[in-house]
Amino acid sequence: MKQAITHFKVPVEDTSTCLGADGSVSHVSRVLRMITGRWKLPILFRLFAEPSLRASQFMRGIPDISQKMLTQHLRELESDGLISRHDFQEQPPRVEYSLTSAGRGLMPILMAVREFSRDYPVDPTVGH
């Protein structure tokens, strides 16, 4: 079993390092807010697999997503700086989305979370 090492960056004696306005909790909470939403992770993982995608490709590749929710989540991810929107100014309209450098930087973290989930599966006998 892997041992988590948590004491290197967050000293226990200084709670402001964890809980202050610029503390660890604030930063992690901000990132979690950026990726919270039913369709945000599928959008990010699709863009990680493909360099750029159009809205119609998301609609085909993510079952059950509505156009409204796709548009909303794309706008939020763009506003948070995780994806970029490129409008080609053509008729008919052509718009493509891709990960920004921040979005690409987030992907190894999301992959690590995936591995954590695989390494520590949920015990169905334990109440949550």
UniProtKB/TrEMBL annotation:
HTH hxlR-type domain location: 18-125
One Pfam family hit: HxlR
Gene3D superfamilies: Winged helix-like DNA-binding domain superfamily/Winged helix DNA-binding domain
Top-level taxonomic group: Bacteria
SUPFAM superfamilies given in the database record: Winged helix' DNA-binding domain (SSF46785)
Entry's Gene Ontology molecular function annotations: DNA binding
Keywords linked to the UniProt accession: DNA-binding, Transcription, Transcription regulation
Keyword DNA-binding: yes
PANTHER family: TRANSCRIPTIONAL REGULATOR (PTHR33204:SF29), TRANSCRIPTIONAL REGULATOR, MARR FAMILY (PTHR33204)
Protein's recorded name: DNA-binding HxlR family transcriptional regulator
Organism, scientific name: Rhizobium laguerreae
